[in-house]
Every structure is written in C-alpha cells, then in structure tokens.
Design a protein that fits this description.
about 325 residues, alpha/beta, Four Helix Bundle (Hemerythrin (Met), subunit A), Rossmann fold, 7-stranded mixed β-sheet, 4-stranded mixed β-sheet, globular
C-alpha cells in the first residue's frame, strides 16, 4: 500500500474470501503501512482492544463487520455482540453499530453502515468549516481523521475541508499522550492531505494560546451525553479549560451516532483505563484513556445535521 490518500476500504473492509475483516494496523503507523487480517471475532476483539483499529466510529464499523463475520461462521451472535461491545466501553458508537446490525447481520448491512459513516463525516466537516475564519490556526488533539472514522474524518475532516476552502493557515497537532495518536496518526494524515501542520507537546498548548498563535481548538468525541458533556482522549478537558481562559472556542465534531441521549451527564460515561505499562515499565502509573469536558466549555457541537449550540439538552435532543 503506497503513501496516498486512504479510501474507506483501506482502513477497514470485509472480504468474502476467507471470510475475514481486513484493517490497516494503526499500531504500525507512521513507519509501516501494513494490513491485519482478522478471520475470527476473537481476532477482531484483540485488534480493537490493542488499538490496531481505534477511533469511535471506526471501531463501530469494525464491530459491524465482525458481527457479519460471526454470522457467516454460524456463531452465537449474542456472545459475539457481547465480546465486541466489551472491548472499548467509553465509545458509544460501538454499541450503536452492533445494535444496527442486530436484525440483519450481513456484510451488505455492515458496508452500508460504513458508507453512511463516510457520508456523515463529509457533511459534518462542511458544517464545521463554516465556523472557521480566514487564516485560522487550529489546534487539534488525538486523531479524529479518516483513520478514526473509517473514511474522511470528523475533526480532521473539518480541518481538511477548511484547508480546501482557503480558510485554514496551520494546524497545531498535540502529540496526545500516552499513545501519541496525534504525532503518529494525525500528522501522518495531514501530511498526506497537504495541510500545513506542526506537532507540539501537549504541554505546549497553553503557551501557544497565550502568545496568540491559536484561534480555535477542534476535536472529535467518543461519547456525548444528553447535556453536552463530552468524553474524548485524555487531555481534551485540559485544552477546554485553557481555551476558555484565553477566550478561544472549542468545537467538538462528531456524528450523531456519538450522541448518547440515554446518558444524562458526563458523570455517567464509563472511562476506560489502560495498562500503566503504556506510560512506564518501571514505576506505578495511572492511565485513564479519556476525560470528560463539561458542556459549558464547548462552543459548539457539530454533527452531520449541522451546528448545535447550548443549551445542549435541547439542541441535542432535537437531533433524535
């Protein structure tokens, strides 16, 4: 696979020959572009758990393909659904996609969900780009590009669209500790798209804001509660507080499948904890993968249906 724009099928796809789910192994990026074949639900569970594929919409798509794979093998679909759903508890898209597959666990249905996700990303990117002024310098956190969504991208999709419209000057890319998904993945995607960018340490964001070099913060989301509280990669809450202090807007860009009206507030969102060894092999460590940004710190939540503003309890409910 050469260095080029990735199509949705390059990120994750279902192949009848096998059958199998084939995905781009994101653990190997940016140095190696290689594919991973998952021939069983167990293979896919491991791939999701170990972040070979990650990003809330993308793992939902992968799980949909996984359920189709289980059906093809004649496996217990309830057991397959439970195993896939348990891999990443914070991202609500996973359970949403599995629910969409319940009555029709076929490759065709999973592919339709994948196509719809790409369409949603393009629509939300267009809506989000409307929030950008000329020569915007945006800061983004973690990876919310095609790799995370199975196609065009949510937050990074918005940055790509803004660049194509001549509204974006530069992107500051947080490394995003602890797994460096910003410096490994977002920078890789922006480079392919020809968008000017620079990787920064997470702790450099405050200084850049103070010196007037940031105009807005744009992130994706893993779950949005009914009141607008939003879970995203650890460190997003810090950026939200910093942005509020410096009078900068924080925009969250995510599909409606990320909005969980059954979760009233961010306090009810389960937060995944990963192994401390991802931070240090020598010392005791605490390694939460996500944090929750209160709705009051979010200037707008952008979905494929448009730009939602506070009060989010009303604007998000209207999406249903």
């Amino acid at each position: 696979m050469g260095r080029r724009h990735l199509g949705p099928e390059d990120i994750v796809r279902y192949e009848e020959d096998g059958p199998k789910v084939v995905l781009l192994d994101q653990r190997r990026l940016p140095d190696d572009v290689v594919e991973l074949e998952c021939r069983t639900v167990g293979d896919l569970v491991t791939a999701i758990d170990e972040l070979a594929i990650r990003g809330a919409p993308a793992i939902g798509i992968a799980a949909a393909y996984g359920l189709a794979l289980a059906a093809e093998h004649g496996e217990d679909l309830d057991a397959a659904t439970a195993a896939l759903a348990a891999t990443r508890p914070t991202a609500v898209n996973l359970a949403w996609a599995l629910g969409q597959m319940r009555d029709e666990p076929t490759p065709a249905r999973a592919r339709a969900l994948h196509e719809d996700e790409v369409g949603r990303c393009r629509a939300m990117a267009a809506h989000a780009a409307e929030l950008f002024g000329p020569s915007t310098r945006a800061l983004t956190h973690c990876n919310a590009g095609g790799l995370a969504t199975g196609g065009y991208g949510s937050a990074v999709g918005a940055l790509r669209t803004a660049w194509e419209l001549g509204l974006l000057e530069r992107v500051w890319v947080d490394e995003t500790r602890p797994l460096l998904q910003g410096s490994r993945l977002t920078a890789w995607e922006l480079e392919a798209a020809g968008v000017p960018y620079a990787v920064i340490a997470d702790s450099a964001a405050a200084a850049l804001m103070a010196s007037g070099e940031v105009d807005c913060v744009v992130t994706g989301a893993d779950r949005i509660a009914a009141n607008g509280d939003t879970a995203n990669k650890i460190g997003t809450y810090s950026l939200a507080v910093l942005a509020a202090h410096h009078g900068l807007p924080l925009y969250v860009v995510a599909p409606t499948s990320t909005v969980d009206l059954a979760t009233a507030t961010g306090a009810e969102i389960p937060i995944e904890e990963r192994a401390g060894s991802e931070i240090t092999a020598r010392f005791a460590a605490r390694n939460p993968a996500f944090d929750v940004t209160p709705a009051g710190l979010i200037a707008a939540i952008v979905t494929e249906l448009g730009v939602q503003r506070a009060p989010y309890a009303q604007s998000l409910a209207a999406l249903a």
